[in-house]
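ok so heres the complex, two chains, lmk if somethin looks off
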Amino acid sequence: MITNENKKLAQWAMEYALKNGCQASKVSLYSGSSTSFEIRDMKIDRLHQASENSLVVQLYVDGRFGSFSTNRLDKQELEKFIKDNIDATRFLAEDKARTLPDESRYYKGGKPDLQLIDPNFDNIQPDDKKNLALKTCEEMMGKDERVISASASYGDEKDFKYMITSNGFEGETSASSFSLVGSVSIKGEGEARPESYWYDSALYYDQMIKEGIGTKALERVLRKLGQKKTKSGRYDMIVDNMNSARLLSPIMDAIDGASIQQKNSFLIDKLNQKVLGDKVTLKDEPHLIKTPGARYFDNEGVATQPMSIFEGGVLKTYFIDTYRANKMGIDPTISSASILTIDMGDKDLEALIAGVNKGILVTGFNGGNCNSTTGDFSYGIEGFLIEGGKMVQPISEMNVTGNMLKLWNQLVEVGNDPRQSSSWRIPSLHFEGIDFSGL
Amino acid sequence: MNINRRDFIKSGGMLVLGSLVAPSFLASCTSPEATKAAGIAFGMNHFKVSESDLKKVLAAALEKGGDYADLFFEHTLNNGIQLQDGAVNNAQSNIDFGMGVRVLSGDQTGYAYVENITLDEMLKAARTAARIADSNNTNKNVAALTEVKPKGSYYDVQAPWESFTVKDKMPYLQKLNDKIFALDKRVHKVRAFLSDSTSHIFFCNTEGQMYYDYRPMCSLSAVCIMEDNGRIENSYASRSYRMGTEFLTDELLDTLAKEAVEKTSILFQAIKPKGGEMPVVMGAGGSGILLHEAIGHAFEADFNRKKTSIFSDLLNKKVCDEHINVVDDGTIPFNRGSVNIDDEGIEGQKTYIVHEGILTSYLHDRISAKHYGIQSTGNGRRENFRQIPIPRMRATYMEAGNVTEEEIIASVKNGIYASSFTNGQVQIGAGDFTFFVKDGYLIENGKLTQPIKDINIIGNGPKALADITMVGNNYKMDDGTWTCGKDGQSCPVTCGMPSALVSKLTVGGEN
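and the predicted structre for the whole thing:
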């Protein structure tokens, strides 16, 4: 929690910076705490408790800019910290594009509470936390003779942020989160010890799934037994809802203002052009109550609003913050997306699989990368071979290779099953004609 | 446990942490030599703790019957400056200060930390961490504290970063920018980063060990974006060492500029190869990523004591050709992965993990060493005072063999030569590992022909190790800015390798 005393400290830091040679400033104060219980083979393995604070001071000095942070919140030390950093900033090259946002763009308040923090956070007893992890571990231990080791962990955290700018913004955010993870290793073929996991996370303790996490992790590892490579070739590809967001990430990077301004993108000068497939209708919906990622203002204090990002594959917006907007001489939008949603179809993963004759279901990525200026990608994968609408063989040690623009033009169906715990709510996806390499 | 269970490595210098100045209570710090000579006296004074406070906190940590406890004090100053669009116009810095209390009870761990170092706060943290134990055996004593002076001193600095200002640093980035632009007229954008950090570490434990370590780190990187006929490509070059400002030389700038431009310009001629299983020649240097992923992580003893690594039953067994030796080394002067003493009081050392083809040692921390009844290999490392130490690699490399690179390439009819890499990952239990090849060549009839780019290579650890059939005489350490991730903790490492042939790996590509 940010105490009034700490708010006063942030306000004091700003005033002190302005009095000592700074023309504008943004000050943010973070405070967070977390606990975790990790159980391995029905014994407590790790107990971890943490709480931290930090102060970030952004200084605009004579047309120059620097950003400085510290977890030493003693006033006397902060005075020297701020003064010395003002002096250091003066050495830098002038950068006229560095300004605070226009004050008309700030969030001014008045919207309903986003309800991101569990009011019962402090009432959850350590024994209940520990027992949840123990119960999850129990769902795996001894439930199959091939189990080598089973772990489960319970974690919770609370984060607070307070932010002020010298041209009038003041804002505060808070969020809690709870997670429960089950993870299990089993004896496989030869020396192999396949491992899998399952988890749930939620903003509220009561909303978190507490039963079946271990059971599901065990199911997920057992179905991996007998993994092998299959033949290289073109296949339909289904990516499940645990992994589909990974494929969106290079697209979101490519429409970020810094990437555009630095020519580090494969989507330069593409606004209002059709660059992705018809099925890609993607929105930013920042104001969903009780939803991870929800927010009324971005990291600059600028008010967020629901926005269309792609409509039927047509690019509708870039993510442009104040600095990049000034640099490129264009209007700013918002610094980054909050909650991503994609227009969904009506099938879940099982139904998508049933519709594929020869394909590969990707249930995990293993390394790989994407070239940020060309969109060329290559990722390691594991999953299942699909034949005649059925999963017939677990596969691993294969690569999927292609180009992001081509890939998203080959999207034929969007599922209906996004994970609720993620702020990028991307369901299972079905692409066609994708290059896999294996045998 | 972290939800993201990936164990990975990545290269580059995109991460800019940022201090420009020492806080006031550091002002008395005259030089690293002086602080080092002062040792624990400096440490205790720096963190304003007395020997009797330390003993009280250690005793509180054992109140519930723990077997062992340690206190890890850290003060780190990070600074970064950045050049983009031709000007050094951004500076960052961060000050991080605190201490962590760890209590071990068998192989169980309790951990808590504080940012505000007072006796009351430390006692509170110690009592939280102590709860891991639950025994009546509370008569364990805290041994008398005595200073440990490690034998090795692998990163003595000539000129510390603390007194080197933004003004002193800026010309180096500017020169690097100008050199890159001068090398090729297709250069369109350059971003360059210089980061440095200085850590003061003070440690003590219930066995009576106490030490102070001064840890410098610096990194210089350049990202180059070139445009040719409407096509845009990007690549980068970076170097990182545990050094003072003597790191910055004109030679370094020349090397980085040349490398960044060469690595970017080759991409314009490069294609994606046809994918599938084929022989892969790993070029000298960064190919050490193969060792890091294929065997390094799976040799970390936490996975092996839990029996979850694919190498869990292979200790003292032959795992590859008898000419192969693989080392994990914390003693290379100025190396990014070096440790005078690890983060739980064990001296830095050089560890053969594969000797003459035999898996000779896992990489241990205190918990796993006790489990196996041996001495720790000094691999217990932590990201910072907020984290517990776990087995981590340092500089991982293969020793040189006896053939030339030409002979290796000439032995391959159709395959791939991998030159540079961006990142890799591994599944510890299944053994599947991958690394991403930023650029390389096709090998056709024993010769390097068409440049290739942007492909992932995947293999299985024990199989790939057994499939290394030729090792070159051209060993090279890669001093790029490698950062390894495990259990949510980042750790600086390096890797090295002579050129080597892996007879079969699965190469990504189009069909």
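quick notes: The mean pLDDT of chain A is 96. thats all i got rn
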